[in-house]
Amino acid sequence: MNKLIQEKDCKKETCVVVMSGGQDSTTCLGIAVELFKRVAVVTFTYGQKHGVEVFCANEIVKEVEEKFNTSIEQHVINVDALRQIGNSALIAGDEQDDVTKEHAQKEGLPASYVPNRNATFLTLAHALAQKLEAGYIMTGVCQTDYSGYPDCRREFIEALETALNLGSESDIKITTPLMNVDKAYTFKLAEEYDVLDIVLQKSHTCYEGDHNTENEWGFGCGKCPSCELRAKGWAEFLERY
Ligand SMILES: [Zn+2]
Predict the structure, then answer these.
(1) CA of 206 to the centre of ligand 1 (A)
(2) Cα–Cα distances in Å, from 138 out to 29, 44, 98, 208?
(3) Ligand 1: distance of its center to the CA of 15 in Å?
């Protein structure tokens, strides 16, 4: 399991987990609680349509604290600039409102692409990590099953890590344990780190913000690209493991 994060001695370190309230970040939180001495989470609000995910993030943190008898410092940061710029079907009130379509400017990318979202989140998480003297930031970005978002690729994350550390004379590692795994294996990891129940009952990934429809793989509309990916991953998880 520790091969997910090969570096310094995690047990002495603080880790800032970027927490969206979804399957991937919930799994990351389970991993971080197991591997690090101290864990803080940061959740960003940016006018996302599925505002329910912020509520879920709070619930997930509470559940994890209770289950693992630990204390997690929680930060919620408002990034209104992303909402003002908009240009994504994930942002409420935006001109692009159909997640199944192509992005208006970015040929080949889905309308759910939010320009520079991960750069913004990770820049702010890095600032918070400096304040908390954290050696690590953990994010659930994944280039395997991803929706084609270029800011989820390893190349980009590594370049950003280098730039942020150069600009702050820091040595903070951005760790991405899910980078090369698929959704089925993410379910498997959640099981290994004992957060599968929390993933299924509390996490939210649906692009339509549906947190009422219950499925065996968790809550969601079952029809949007994000739900389809999650349902497919669940079916493969049951078949494979
Ligand atoms: Zn959905």
Answers:
(1) 4
(2) 8, 14, 30, 26
(3) 30
User: What is the Cα gyration radius of the chain?
Assistant: 17
39 DSSP β-pair partners: 15
Q: What is the pLDDT of residue 5?
A: 65
Give the residue extent of every domain in the chain: 13-182
Between the two ends of the chain, the Cα-to-Cα distance in Å is 16
- Residues ≥6 apart with Cβ < 8 Å to 3: none
pLDDT of residue 90: 83
Which residue ranges of the chain lie beneath pLDDT 50?
1-2
- From ligand 1's centre to the CA of 79, what distance in Å? 24
pTM of the full structure = 0.93
pLDDT of residue 6: 57
Q: Which two tokens stand for residue 97?
A: 């409102």
Distance of CA 55 to the CA centre of its chain: 14
Can you tell me whether residue 48 is helix, strand or coil?
strand
How much distance in Å is there from the Cα of 148 to the middle of ligand 1?
17
Fold of 13-182: Rossmann fold (3.40.50)
E strands, the chain, are 14-18, 38-45, 73-78, 136-138, 173-175, 214-215, 218-219
Q: How far is the CA of 224 from the centre of ligand 1 (A)?
A: 4
What pLDDT shows up at residue 1? Answer: 42
β-bridge pairing 218-219 and 214-215? antiparallel
232: enclosing H helix or E strand: helix 225-240
Distance, CA of 229 to CA of 223 (rounded, Å): 10
Taking the centre of ligand 1 as the mean of its atom positions, its distance from the CA of residue 167, in whole angstroms, is 39
